[in-house]
Specification:
By secondary structure, this protein is of the alpha/beta class. The protein is about 35% helix and about 20% strand. The radius of gyration is 16 Å and the shape is globular.
């Protein structure tokens, strides 16, 4: 596979097993390629410190995985690992949650609310790019609309959205890359 993902919003669209999630894992160095090179801003990602890369390229997983504690604890989690404090309210608002959620136990939220907490947690790192692995796959229509609204408000942040939904790709991204059996389908 050979492709370039420019600044802005890009959808990776394709059936299950086409390589969409694997590509995200390669971009975030949760996996390394068996052959070839994955570059971020021209540098082979294997030359970059994985933790530094993951701060620069935030991943929002398909299934929410909040850390124990409040929503605020979750949003502060990543920045604290790098020795800095953040005000959790701006990322929470940007992710489409009301600041009244900050003191709530993240594990007791609905899946849709937890997904927005995952988005806020990634945004708190102030990444250069977001990788979104089917962020609305397990959500009802209202929660999907809330997550999509949050994504439409990420005006200056590049992101790659993995989805099975062509209409969602059209609504949320500037370009779509179709994958089939691990290959770019033109």
């Amino acid at each position: 596979m050979s492709l370039s993902i420019p600044h802005g919003s890009t959808a990776l669209l394709g059936p299950s097993g086409s390589g969409k999630s694997t590509l995200l894992r390669l971009l975030n160095r949760l996996a390394d390629p068996d052959a070839g090179v994955v570059r971020f801003h021209g540098t082979d990602v294997r030359e970059l410190d994985p933790l530094d890369l993951r701060r620069r390229v935030g991943l929002v997983p398909q299934l929410p995985a909040p850390v124990p504690g409040s929503v605020a604890d979750n949003v502060r989690f990543g920045p604290r690992l790098e020795g800095r404090e953040v005000d959790p309210e701006p990322p929470v608002r940007l992710a489409g949650l009301d600041p009244s959620f900050l003191d709530r136990d993240a594990s007791r939220l609905s899946v849709g609310e937890q997904q927005r907490v995952m988005l806020a947690r990634a945004l708190a790192l102030e990444p250069e790019m977001l990788l979104l692995d089917e962020p609305t796959a397990s959500l009802d229509a209202d929660a999907t609309a809330a997550v999509e609204h949050a994504l439409r408000n990420l005006h200056d942040l590049s992101y790659v959205l993995v989805t099975h939904n062509a209409e969602q790709a059209d609504r949320l991204t500037e370009r779509t890359i179709r994958l089939e059996q691990g290959r770019v389908h033109r």
